[in-house]
Amino acid sequence: MMFLMAKAKQQYVCQSCGTVHSRWSGKCDGCDAWNTIIEESLEAAIPKGLGNGNKGRIIEFADLKGQNHERPPRFITGISEFDRVTGGGLVPGSAILTGGDPGIGKSTLLLQVACALAKKDLRCVYISGEESVDQVRLRADRMGLGDMSVGLASATSVRDIVATLEDSSNPVHLAVIDSIQTMYLDNIDSAPGTVTQVRASAQEITRVAKKRGIAVIFVGHVTKEGTIAGPRVLEHMVDTVLYFEGDRSHQFRILRGVKNRFGATDEIGVFEMASEGLVEVENPSALFLAQRQADVAGSAVLAGLEGTRPVLVEVQALVAPSAMANPRRAVIGWDTSRLAMVLAVLEARCGLQFSGMDIFLNIAGGIRISEPAADMAVAAALVSALSGVALPGETVFFGEIGLAGEVRMVAQPELRLKEAAKLGFGKAVIPRFKKNKNKTKIPKPPLEIEDIVSVLDLAAMFSHDNVQRKQA
Fold it and tell me: What is the tens place of the pLDDT at every residue in 221-271?
């Protein structure tokens, strides 16, 4: 009896979003990206279910309440900002994906993490597919970490990496893979960095990491839009996804947790780039407000919340008459659609005119704010810039603005007020508290609270004559 080998099928996969197409085209229908579709081989499989072969084995279930065995402790690095974002340290057997723009400090931080754990007699290996061993050593010497016992290797074969991690004679506790886009499996007929290679390589390394209890950290390239290159399924395969944010022209770096199965999401760690590497910032609020100028129109202080950490940042707005038919709306560090909504509410509910103005909005310090609590501070900065009246320097703002012009309470106002009081602010403009059992406590020393119910109350803080004079 003669058996025929199934032919390998060809598929066309977008390298940006992972969408599979039946034929090649210049534009991807999934993400609208151009020239990202590449032909890849797909091994043919029998599509008719399990057939009449051997039956599978019965799965043995464990009782949820019967977990009395001792769980392995986390790998605490001692870098408090990194441990905060990961939920208290690295969990053995977990897979972490780290992304960020080129040159922002991903490899530098992960080398520091590996050296910090090596100090605690944990075997850490750093496997680089982009740099040679001598290049990694040069970076370590520049940061003063050249005498640390961290294993270095330059390799790209997943088969070799898996064999090394499975070697029980020399167990590994932490493995850093820099980067996952350079790894390849020799039994897959596609180039390194393609969707198939990235997905299969991460799956094989994650499998052996969970089997051996190894914490593995992947470094991922990012696209022009700032997302991790390759399919989003890579983010679903790992336990934790970390993003490096910040501009290379600024010395601040923000490490943000987007996904974390072992801790809170949306946590941030603040670092400062220095000659010895990334230095953690214990009080980011004071750092973000260090160069703030007082008595300047268009400047407001937001008492924000990133994960469980309160952060005070400066919101800067500039409103100027426009000579163009379509005025410019330039936003750095905030959502452009959210700015358009706040402008529409101020025009419709307060009668202010922004339609013929160029508007520039900036969150100072290079941090990006995404929570709705920034609406109040943005609105205050916009009205201040339009009227030319500076806001009081010792006042913080937070609150969400609705389409009807109402100002709504946001989560955990007591933490925001405590942080503002700790930094010497004396007044807070916040939404009005509802009378309920869970009344918010005012921190000590007490802040002067001015609670408002709508954007009309916010606009009333500015002189009506100055607003009319500025508009004229």
Answer: 876 666 665 556 788 899 999 998 877 667 788 999 999 999 888 899 999
Q: Is 12 exposed, middle or buried (0-12, 13-18, 19+ CB in 10 A)?
A: middle
Beta carbons within 8 Å of 53's beta carbon, 6+ residues apart: none
Distance CA 451, CA 455 (A): 11
Burial of 445 (0-12, 13-18, 19+ CB in 10 A): exposed
Q: Using CA atoms, how far apart are residues 454 and 379, in angstroms rounded to an integer? A: 11
String of DSSP letters for 109-141? HHHHHHHHHHTTT--EEEEESSS-HHHHHHHHH
Distance of alpha carbon 459 from alpha carbon 463, whole angstroms? 9
DSSP 427: E
Reported as a single tens digit per residue, the pLDDT across 31-54 is: 887 888 888 766 544 445 555 666
* Phi, psi for residue 437 in degrees, rounded to 5: -70, -35
pLDDT band at 339 (very low <50, low <70, confident <90, very high): very high
**CATH superfamily of the domain spanning 74-282:** P-loop containing nucleotide triphosphate hydrolases (3.40.50.300)
Q: Which residues contact 141 (CB under 8 A, 6 or more apart)?
A: none
Q: For the segment 398-418, what is each residue's pLDDT rounded down to a tens digit?
A: 999 999 999 999 999 999 999
CA 464, CA 447: separation in Å to the nearest integer? 27
Chosen CATH of 286-471 out of 3.20.20.140, 3.40.50.410, 3.40.1490.10, 3.30.230.10 = 3.30.230.10
